[in-house]
Design brief:
By secondary structure, the chain is an alpha/beta fold. It contains 16 helices and eight strands. α7 links the parallel β7 and β8. It is globular.
C-alpha cells in the first residue's frame, strides 16, 4: 500500500516518519524550490536530516509520479498552496478512488472558504477527508502520543483513513462526520493561539490566559455554529484540544508570533525571523471577514487582527479588550447544532 505526502515541510516530513510502518511505499512531494539539497541527497549521504526518514521513503518534485498508485494522498501544504496544488493534481491525473486527506488548518483569502471547499472547487469528484487535532510536529517527533479527528462526509472513507493512519500508542484517531466543525475548530484556534502568546509576552498572568482561551473559544463557537458546525465538535479534539495545545506551547508557530507581537515587534520582521508559515496571521483577517459577514462579535480575534495589520501598541490592544462595554456571558446548549 502506498502513501503520498504532498508537502516537504516539517509537518509533512513528520507525518511521513510517523506513518512509516503503516505503508509499504511512502513518497514525499515538494515544489522544486522547497526541496533542499539535503532532502534530495538524504539517501546518498550520512549527514542526518532534521527528520530522520526510512530508506524506503522517496522524495520527488514530480507530482505525477508521486501520486501514481497511491491509495491515500495527504495534503500538507500551506493553505495558500492548496488551490494551486489541487490544479496540479488534476493535471497529473488524480483518480476518483484515491483519497485526499487535508492536514492544513486555515481559510482561503479572499474567498473565506474552508480548505475542503477549495479542494471541492478544483476536484469535485475526489474522495475527501480532513485530519485535525493537537498535532504539534516537534512533540510527535519526540515520540509523544496524541490523538486527532478524521472527518468526512462519507463515514466509510473516514473509517478507512482511521484504520490506516492510526499508530498504536502514538497516534490515536477518531472519526467524525462534522467536516465544518473539525475544519473551523482547527483553523480558528490559531488566532487565539496568537492572543495567548501575546499575553504571555506581556507577563499578564495565568488568569489572563484563562480568560483569553475561554472568550476566544466563545468566538470560535459563535462563528462556527452559524456556519453549520456542531458545538460538540468544537469542544472536541479539533477545537478545544487543539486550542489548549497551541495556546501554551513554544512549539506552536502561532503562539510564537503572538509572543513576538507582545514584545512590540512588527509582523514582517516576525515572519522573516520565523522563516515558516503561521496560519493564524492570515486566518485573523479571514475570521474577522466572516464575523462581519455574519454580524457576529469577535473582540479577541479583532484585537489580534489589529495587532497584526496595524500600528496599535500591545498596551492599546489590552486596554481595548478590558474596557469594552460590560455584557452577559453566553449560555451554551451542547446538544444543539
Amino acid at each position: 500500500m502506498k502513501l503520498t505526502v504532498l508537502g516537504a515541510g516539517c509537518w509533512g516530513l513528520t507525518i511521513a516518519k510517523l506513518l512509516n510502518n503503516n505503508f509499504d511505499e511512502i513518497c514525499i512531494w515538494g515544489r522544486t524550490q522547497d526541496l533542499t539539497e539535503e532532502l534530495r541527497q538524504y539517501k546518498k549521504t550520512s549527514k542526518p536530516l532534521l527528520v530522520q526518514l526510512d530508506s524506503k521513503v522517496e522524495i520527488t518534485d514530480d507530482i505525477t509520479n508521486a501520486i501514481k498508485g497511491a491509495e491515500i494522498i495527504l495534503l500538507v501544504v500551506a493553505t495558500s498552496g492548496i488551490r494551486p496544488v489541487c490544479k496540479q493534481l488534476k493535471e497529473a491525473g488524480i483518480k476518483d478512488e484515491q483519497i485526499l486527506v487535508n492536514l492544513s488548518k486555515g481559510l482561503e483569502l479572499p474567498s473565506l472558504k474552508r480548505m475542503s471547499e477549495v479542494i471541492k472547487d478544483e476536484l469535485p469528484t475526489s474522495k475527501l477527508a480532513v485530519l485535525s487535532g493537537p498535532t504539534l510536529a516537534k512533540e510527535i517527533l519526540n515520540g509523544c502520543p496524541t490523538a486527532a479527528c478524521i472527518a468526512s462526509d462519507d463515514i466509510k472513507t473516514a473509517e478507512f483513513i482511521q484504520k490506516h493512519l492510526n499508530v498504536p500508542s502514538k497516534f490515536r484517531l477518531y472519526t467524525n462526520s462534522d467536516v465544518i466543525g473539525v475544519e473551523l475548530g482547527g483553523s480558528l484556534k490559531n488566532v487565539i493561539a496568537i492572543a495567548s502568546g501575546f499575553a504571555d509576552a506581556m507577563n499578564l498572568g495565568d488568569n489572563c490566559r484563562g480568560t483569553l482561551l475561554t472568550r476566544g473559544m466563545a468566538e470560535i463557537v459563535r462563528v462556527s455554529v452559524m456556519l453549520g458546525a456542531k458545538q460538540s465538535t468544537l469542544y472536541g479534539l479539533s477545537g478545544m484540544g487543539d486550542l489548549i495545545a497551541t495556546c501554551s506551547s513554544p512549539f506552536s508557530r502561532n503562539y510564537t508570533v503572538g509572543s513576538m507581537l507582545g514584545k512590540g515587534k512588527k509582523i514582517d520582521d516576525i515572519l522573516n525571523e520565523l522563516g515558516s508559515v503561521a496560519e493564524g496571521v492570515k486566518t485573523s483577517k479571514a475570521l474577522c471577514g466572516l464575523a462581519d459577514k455574519l454580524g457576529v462579535e469577535v473582540p479577541v480575534s479583532s484585537a489580534i487582527y489589529e495587532a497584526v495589520y496595524t500600528d496599535i501598541t500591545p498596551d492599546e490592544v489590552l486596554n481595548k479588550l478590558m474596557n469594552r462595554k460590560l455584557r452577559q456571558e453566553e449560555e451554551y446548549n451542547l446538544t444543539s447544532k
